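Q: Please design a sequence for this.
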């Protein structure tokens, strides 16, 4: 089998069986087509997958370093290649996996931006839900801070998704995985207030999505970023000012108050605890700062 055909099979597997998001599949495809183009120059226009060796993968990595790709980008591209060859080996399409000995470059973890408790309190108290737009903005921010949802998950919610009696919402996360996330009284109150105004935004449309633009169409991630970035600029000096900042704030505040990391991980929809542990670094850093400020011998 030639490499181009193998890549197509692998991408179909990611879409149909693994249920990866379109964005992830596009990222993997870009890396794999780039790798394939490099091998076409070195081997031939039709690269047999059983002729690909460790040296070819290492040359691709060297090329990425030479092109000054970041370590994060290189790690992602290498992940795509390792996943491809793991798939081919498991399907008995290759005799050996040339990617097993390739080491993944270590990426420095950036501490996520988050709001301090007083900042988020001031922000939420500043938005008066006295018109459709303010009510929608407050409901969206209360929801993101109160549940830790990704913005894509929040914007996929329907009016029927909110169960006020059980105080749970059904969320469709990455890989189309379903999870139930608790929602607090403040977020429910803000959403109920917004729902009273929501009909004013519909403009004769029949749309079940919870969050709408002022023209009555579903709110997009770009719309949400613009709205939240504009609001956060007024209340916080944090470096990142995006919907994801509220997700980081949700996780950080829970862990700072003693929440179990496994429970937080489940609410965030993380596939492993390692993704959640970055927030424990924030908590530890905060403890160190408090210690230095407060302890006479620090």
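A: Design:
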């Amino acid at each position: 089998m030639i490499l181009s055909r193998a890549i197509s099979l692998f991408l179909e597997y990611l879409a149909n069986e693994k249920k990866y998001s379109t964005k992830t599949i596009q990222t993997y495809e870009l890396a794999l087509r780039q790798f394939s183009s490099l091998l076409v120059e070195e081997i031939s226009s039709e690269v047999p997958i059983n002729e690909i060796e460790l040296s070819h993968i290492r040359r691709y990595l060297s090329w990425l370093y030479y092109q000054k790709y970041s370590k994060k980008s290189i790690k992602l591209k290498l992940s795509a290649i390792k996943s491809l060859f793991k798939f081919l080996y498991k399907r008995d399409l290759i005799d050996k996996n040339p990617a097993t000995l390739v080491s993944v470059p270590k990426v420095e973890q950036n501490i996520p931006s988050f709001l301090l408790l007083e900042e988020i309190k001031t922000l939420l108290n500043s938005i008066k839900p006295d018109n459709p737009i303010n009510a929608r903005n407050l409901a969206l921010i209360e929801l993101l801070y109160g549940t830790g949802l990704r913005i894509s998950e929040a914007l996929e919610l329907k009016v029927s998704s909110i169960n006020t009696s059980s105080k749970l919402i059904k969320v469709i996360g990455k890989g189309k995985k379903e999870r139930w996330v608790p929602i607090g009284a403040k977020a429910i109150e803000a959403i109920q207030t917004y729902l009273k105004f929501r009909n004013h935004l519909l403009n004769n449309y029949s749309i079940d999505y919870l969050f709408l633009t002022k023209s009555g169409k579903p709110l997009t991630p770009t719309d949400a970023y613009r709205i939240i970035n504009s609001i956060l600029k007024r209340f916080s000096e944090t470096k990142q000012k995006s919907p994801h900042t509220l997700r980081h704030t949700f996780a950080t505040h829970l862990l700072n108050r003693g929440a179990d990391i496994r429970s937080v991980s489940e609410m965030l929809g993380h596939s492993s605890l390692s993704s959640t542990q970055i927030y424990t670094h924030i908590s530890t850093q905060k403890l160190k700062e408090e210690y230095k400020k407060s302890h006479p011998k620090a």
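Q: Thanks. Anything notable?
A: The chain has 13 helices and three strands. The mean pLDDT is 85.
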